[in-house]
Amino acid sequence: MIDLDFDRRHIWHPYASMKNPLPVFPVSAASGVRLHLEDGRELVDGMSSWWAAVHGYNHPVLNRAAREQLRRMSHVMFGGLTHEPAVKLARQLVAITPDSLDRVFFSDSGSVAVEIAIKMAVQYWGALSRPAKKRMLALRCGYHGDTFGAMSVSDPLTGMHSLFRGAIQEQLFAPSPECRYGEPCRDDDISAMVRLLEEHHHELAAVIVEPMVQGAGGMRFYSPDWLVRLRELCTAFGVLLVFDEIATGFGRTGKMFAMEHAGVVPDILCVGKALTGGYMSLAATLASPEVADAISSGEPGLFMHGPTFMANPLATAVASASVGLLQSGDWQASVRRIETGLRRGLEPCRGFEGVVDVRVLGAIGVVELERPVDMASIQQEFVRRGVWVRPFGRLVYLMPPFIIEDRDLDLLTAVVREVVAGEVAGR
Fold first, then answer.
1. How far, in Å, CA of 420 to CA of 357, rounded?
2. H/E stretch holding 270
3. Confidence of residue 341 (pLDDT cuts 50, 70, 90)
């Protein structure tokens, strides 16, 4: 049995206090869409373990890929060496992304993939003898990770800027797009971005955004037209465009990548989370030949980054199998089915007093409340009802694995309705 007392006293969980820790629930196993707790209870997972386990847990294809790779080697340094899993995965990523994104740099997490994108953008302009172009322009309500560079381009109000002011670089921020998904982008919707680019393009290395869906910064869905306009602006003002698809990549929005909703291509692309199907941490930053060639031709003639576990063979082998599952399966039909179930199951929440909005895109369903939830109590209510849902702030949301069956999806949405109704009624 897991020693929960030791856990409380010695293990620091994410976004948690060591003095007043939130309750944690001991998991003994996971399979399909179910988390098995030590006390015998089973929870239907609505989170895909922070949006990564798109194929569910204990998948036979991914298990086999891990076992077969373990028999060969679990790790080897990528400096001066290469191996088949990395080459195969890079070939797959190049095949499923736009033609101009064909240079692949592997790393160990989404935050690091963003750090790499920022460094690529800065080093690109330095190589072109434009060293003043070092700052980034991002969106309010955005989230790009927890490391220092990634924090610097995440929302300055709801993020962690106040805690680390003076320690992280000060970047520029445009308002989050007000034009919602399905609406056109009007001039007013992007006028602030235009102004910032006009005034600061001489010092801007890149604009970085989460295409279509602002994830942990608010689960906001915005217009594809806005992205089309942004691509045009970045080209016109000579600023690189970076898309952070760490949360949205690999089918979550109904397209393989969210940028496909708008039909636009960035200069640099970050992917992670679902890349390995949730088996282990791996990310990648893809760049255009223009970016890679400039960096490789300038001083010092190479890209200055190299994680110890870059392109880990075990991780890349499992990731290759995960991407292969998407390429060979009808994940689009699964996501459409999930989208239908989420709309049907969550829409009644719109009528609850204290609910601001209900929105669904692909396999993402969001109920936005007027006030933040009480995490300690609401988490236990979900577990008591047999589901795993992890709200944050004012948002109760679902991102289930693509393999979820209708009866389990119906259970998830029914429990969300019950718990949200209780949450707003208790106020």
1. 12
2. strand 268-271
3. very high
134 is catalytic: no
Q: Regarding predicted confidence, which is higher, 216 or 344? A: 344
Point out the catalytic residue in the list 119, 133, 255, 273.
Answer: 273
pLDDT in tens, 261-316: 999 999 999 999 999 999 999 999 999 999 999 999 999 999 999 999 999 999 99
Catalytic residue check, 279: no
Catalytic residue status for 15: yes
In the chain, what are the domain boundaries? 4-58+330-425, 73-328
Architecture of the domain made up of 4-58+330-425: Alpha-Beta Complex (3.90)
Identify the DSSP state of 32. Answer: B
Identify the band that residue 207 occupies on the pLDDT scale cut at 50, 70 and 90.
Answer: very high
Q: Report the CATH fold assignment for 73-328.
A: Aspartate Aminotransferase; domain 2 (3.40.640)
Distance (Å, whole) CA 22 – CA 13? 9
| Predicted local distance difference test score (pLDDT) of residue 426 | 67
How many Cα atoms occupy the beta-carbon half-sphere of 237 within 13 Å? 26
Catalytic-residue membership of 397:
no
Which one of 108, 244, 267, 408 is the catalytic residue? 244
Determine the length of the chain. 427
Query: Which one of the listed residues 45, 124, 133, 143 is annotated catalytic?
Result: 143
Which distant-in-sequence residues (6+ apart) come within 8 Å of 358 by Cβ? 346, 347, 349, 350, 365, 366, 367, 368
Full DSSP string of 331-396:
HHHHHHHHHHHHHHHHGGGGGSTTEEEEEEETTEEEEEESS---HHHHHHHHHHTTEE---BTTEE
Reported as a single tens digit per residue, the pLDDT across 173-200 is 999 999 999 999 999 999 999 999 999 9
Which amino acid, one-letter code, is at 64? R
pLDDT at 427: 54
* Active-site residue, selected from the candidate residues 5, 15, 19, 187: 15
